[in-house]
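Extended Data, panel c. Modelled sequence:
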Amino acid sequence: MKTIEEQFEELGVVPVVVLENKEDAVLLAEALVQGGLPCAEVTFRTNAAAESIRLMSEKYPDMLVGAGTVLTTEQVDLAVKSGAKFIVSPGFDPEIVDYCLEKNIPVFPGCISPSEVAQAVKRGLKIVKFFPAEQAGGIAMIKAMAAPYHNIRFMPTGGINTGNLKDYLSCDKILCCGGSWMVKGDMIRNGEFEKIQVLVKEAKELAYAIRCK
């Protein structure tokens, strides 16, 4: 069985999702699976997040569903209980990271400075999030910061789209990119799941083309 890291790298793009209504969860999961990206980082920005994770995980047990924007250890427990296979936090919160490591829960904390990366390295982490990617210096910042930390790879999220995806995925320091351009909130609210499937398929094909050159 492939590790989560191996699955992330194979996918190239991880859809970052905000679900306001749990009723949309299975329809969205179907669009992601059919589009070729059976993965979702469901952000804990809404009350529907935990139930959405549960519904998606039950319908598609092989789908890589995780929780994003996790800010407390209580949210970690709720996410994992709901079926989340990984935890993502926007910044480096030692309490959350240590809690996840203690419980053997895959965790990918946000790191945008050498000091934060150093804390991740100290804890034995190999993968960290880089958020907000474009606003924090983009791929140039990642390359500069990764130089002294050669064993760390990044999952940039924030401001990434089809126009700059190649800049990121062409770098061997990038494991995968988080993106919401193919799963925008208004498309989900409007029930445009066929459109989402098309955009997901395009994102997957673009990532594959970039990585295979």
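The longest strand covers residues 13-17. This feature is highlighted in the accompanying rendering.
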